[in-house]
Amino acid sequence: MDTSVLIHLLSILLQVAAIFLAFRLIPLSGRRLAWILLSVAFLLMGARRLLDLLFAHSALGIPHYHALYDSLGWITSLLIVVGVYLIRDVFLAHKQAEEKFQTLAASAQDAIVIMEGRGKVSFWSVAAERLFGYTAGEVVGRPLHELIVPARFREAALKGLSGFARTGQGPVIGKTLELRVLRRDGTEFDAEHSISAVRIGDGWCAMGVVRDITARKEAERSLQEQLDELRRFEKLAVGRELRVKELAEENRALTDKLAKLERS
């Protein structure tokens, strides 16, 4: 069989394989896959340039050149189409997920704060604006600990942040804690923090759900005070009862003594 016929058949097979691969990949999604496909497409563009050089130096015949050049062109075009489709799909899914999250965060009663691995605020919900007194525009990009952590606790908080960006692990991750926090006006209050690690892109972020528990802590303190008062009353009552018993015994002893004296 003539070499040119073999090359034409090979080019057709390559085109069919590329089309099949394209339709197999289109339902998939993923940013990395898209960049891989686009990178391969750029490499094939370089291969076409190499064919031009070989043809210019008469290293390839005209039939061979056109067959390979057209095959590489088809494959490159398909890879670019699929890569762009996947990137569009990734960004569309990301946008839809972000819109859903924004809607949920806006309707949440508890404050939602997201801190990227270096400790800076990347998301600040409407409830967080009400709770802390800062707008999202004022805090995004600023260090979270300088905004809401009292000065006496900042050093310990920053130590816990040291390995978080790399591992997504930390002493407060996956826990619900009661901590003192700051408002914009400098006042402190008790807040409950539920903190979890979230993988966003190639880095770790910490998402905190913060609830003001001032009213609950005041109720607990009031209840504790009432319990302490009841214990004091109970203790006094028990003391009085014991004293009454002692007096009764003393009274009986005196009565018996008087009776004996009268008999004598």
3D architecture notes:
- With 264 residues, this protein is α+β, with helices and mostly antiparallel strands.
- It is built from nine helices and five strands.
- A five-stranded antiparallel β-sheet has the order 2-1-5-4-3.
- Helix 1 (3-25) runs parallel beside helix 3 (62-107).
Could you name the key traits of this structure?
5-stranded antiparallel β-sheet, alpha+beta, 264 residues
Q: From the alpha carbons, calculate the radius of gyration and give it in angstroms.
A: 39 Å
Helicity range of the residues? 55-70%
Structural class computed from helices and strand pairing: alpha+beta
Oligomer: single chain
Output the helix-strand order.
Answer: HHHEEHHHHHEEEH
Largest sheet: 5 strands, antiparallel
| Secondary structure tally, helices | 9
Strand order of the largest sheet: 2-1-5-4-3
Point out poorly predicted stretches. none
Q: Which word captures the global form?
A: rod-shaped
Number of strands: 5
Q: Indicate the mean pLDDT.
A: 75
| Ends distance | 152 Å
Beta content: 15-25%
In short:
The protein is of the alpha+beta class and 264 residues long. It has helices at residues 3-25, 31-56, 62-107, 126-132, 136-139, 144-148, 151-161, 164-167, 214-263, and strands spanning 111-116, 121-124, 175-182, 188-200, 203-212. A hairpin with a 5-residue loop joins strand 3 (175-182) and strand 4.
Task: Chart the SSEs and their pairings.
Elements: H1 3-25, H2 31-56, H3 62-107, E1 111-116, E2 121-124, H4 126-132, H5 136-139, H6 144-148, H7 151-161, H8 164-167, E3 175-182, E4 188-200, E5 203-212, H9 214-263
Antiparallel strand pairs: 1-2, 1-5, 3-4, 4-5
